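Can't paste images in this forum, so I'm doing it all in text. The chain is below; anyone willing to post the predicted structure tokens underneath?
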Amino acid sequence: MGDNSMNVKSITKEQWLRDVFPEWGIWLNEEIRDYKVEAGNFSMWWLGTTGIWVKTPGDANIAMDFWVGRGRSTHVEPPFEETKDFQMTRMTGGRAMPPNLKAYPTVLDPFEIGKINRLDALFSTHIHDDHICPYVAAAVTQNTKAPFIGPELCVKKWRALGVPEDRLVIVKPGDTYKVGDLTVYAVESFDRTALITTPPEGDLRGKMPVDMDERAVNYVIETPGGQIYHSGDSHYSNGYFKHGKDFDIDVCLVSYGINAPGNMDKVPASDCLRIAQNLDARVLIPFHHDTWTNQVPDDHELEMLWRMNRERLQYGLFLWKTGAQYVYPRDKERVRYWYPQGTFDFYTDEPNIPFPSFL
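Text version of the structure:
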């Protein structure tokens, strides 16, 4: 229903932004607050990109890689001097910036966290801007007491944003962090793009790469309902096999997407399947494929390859949508998520229509 009090002479761009964004308002904040996780389960919501929210039966609440920014917003190319050290420029030798427009709505209001729904800890997997967010950092700093947990360079970025020192926690592979009835294990990252991300600036050719552990980690989240493997932006690696031996992975999250010719950034469908197989996971869930318009895949490809190899792979697949909830093991057999249509309480009252056969 429209607002009859609005007038075109007084409406401003600031009012439009305030009234319309985030697009989901506080809907998901309320859903997370109100959902009671049953014993032996965990609940997870996809916040977009590799952002997830995890809630346990003991009401532990953590967020990882929660980001509410945007990508490209103009056709105007920035000066090459400003982009020459951008990881995609370094990776490809190309000068034009990719048309990576953000493809999904903002589904969770960060500034209502701590007011509507609680947060016990905020984690980041790595230093890329779409995984560590100044707006989220501001909201969490102002409205919660949650610590900020991540590899060294993530903590350095949070520190530069003004996050208090006593709320910063550096982790590296082998470290653990306990939050209520869940435990988070930091493990090795396989995000080779992070290795060519500044710092350092300048020419990298012929030089030894930097230390991955200071800029990126993957996480294993152990909950009363099972273990979640969060791969950040990691690419395929044989190292997943070791992580599969070290942990009993129930659900693995993999950064899926299509790649432009001449570039390798996201994990293609076949490698998503290989990662889940190496981890010996029980369910594969792709993420990040919602983010950039130039990398959004048709996820039917992933489903088709999974179905073709189902007997050999011996694990499930779940294809969700941004803002979706996934409860494990309750949803273990589901393959696709559909947004709820409502409670179907139709005909509670007599329909207000001219005559019964109107519809």
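The mean pLDDT is 95. Residues 22-330 form a domain with the Metallo-beta-lactamase; Chain A fold (CATH 3.60.15.10).
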